[in-house]
Specification:
This protein is of the alpha/beta class. It has 17 helices and 24 strands. Helix 5 runs parallel beside helix 6.
Amino acid sequence: MSAALEMRGISKSFPGIRALSDVDLVVESGEVHAIVGENGAGKSTLMKILAGVYQPDEGTILLGGEETRISGQLDARRRGIGMVYQELNLVPDLTVAENIALGRTPSRFGILQRRRLHEEAVAVLEALDARMDPSAILGSLTVSQQQIVEIAKAYALRPSIIVLDEPTSSLSEHEAQALFRVVRRMREEGIAIIYISHRLREVLDLADRVTVLRDGRQIETRESKGLTAGEMIRLMVGRDLTDVFPKRDVPIAETVLEVEGLTRAGAFENVSFEVRAGEIVGLAGLVGAGRTEVARAIFGLDRAQAGTVRVDGAEVRARTPGKGLASGIAYVPEDRKRDGIVPSASIKDNISLPVLGRLSAGGWISRGKEQRLAKEQVAALGVSPPVIDRPVDTLSGGNQQKVVIAKWLAARPRVLILDEPTRGVDVGAKADIHEIIGELAAAGTAILLISSELPEVLAVSDRIVVLHEGRVSAELGRAEADETSIMHAATGEAVTA
């Protein structure tokens, strides 16, 4: 029996870049086949060729054993290829049923057939064992439920192949389990599933086989059984990373950040904790628990209705991000593309944005100072390539994240809030970012770290504050914290604060 998909000898070049070189990929029906690799390894390019976005320079594609030329994205869908990208492509104001039917809404004589629309959505959701109301407005759902709607939309087209690109990047490990049930149900139906993720533990749990790409080349394809995360990392980066989450032992000094009774109705209530110089405090909890909302209020992006924030004993009245920054607080947001960078601007311009006042005199920016600052930050954080005039959107995800961090470090903050600092970056860049975090703590910066990856929180934090439905449900020391205790507190099963 022929494989659902064979990609043979696929090569692709862009001006000055060899993105793929002679890559082979074979995916069987009823298989979850993971593709892993660092940012820039060629994963996205290979999938865009499968989706008809790009044409390969060399190589052939076979679907069900028949050689095929995929002329475009519509052609790919017609041939049974479903794509679920990392960024959701849904309409928040429409219902679940309407989103599942996007682009193929049932109608007769130009009139929408709402009953048929609802019935088709019910059938799709039941087939995926996805428990949700088809008439619910999408924007009212959790991120994990919206991700399942995105998969249901692709599944409704009855594809033979589905590509899932970082489907859990916005989900906690607890919430990802619902999505895994959907993936396993599709595998049982005989759908060939290509699964791309930087979360290596979920790859090992979910995938039948794993293909590793590095620098646009296929390094190895192996059964996942018996494969370890350490072996995958070695294949991905070409070297051993003995500790992806390094933890430095640094002296912890005086209290720098004090949060007391912080409240914002509907988001969080009576949140209190402190962070000391040289300390990394992890802020854990399920998606929707209020972690990001608390961080935004501390920095001044959102206004708290009650409570106080102090830096070095002085009360911070952060009504705007500018005032938060002036008080010594910097915030690296969870969505770097939307909130962290100006994508089309250069590395230099992005880094200088928060400190233009320091670089200016008489209303004029000193280009010499701006260039020196950018070069210093690029060198300190290992941004690659170190070309300060290069647009940020031409960098890999990991290097874009380094630019976001560099931008705020240029402001020399006393408190650094990091919201999902390694989301969507590869293991090599993840290790680099954690090394940077360790260096900042060693220099006396007070760090508040938000992450949905429990291994990350556990590995780098000195203390962990857990939120459940907007309230502090536990505060755990490094020695007593583990995944079980955090999840008990995050789900409200145990209150040990």
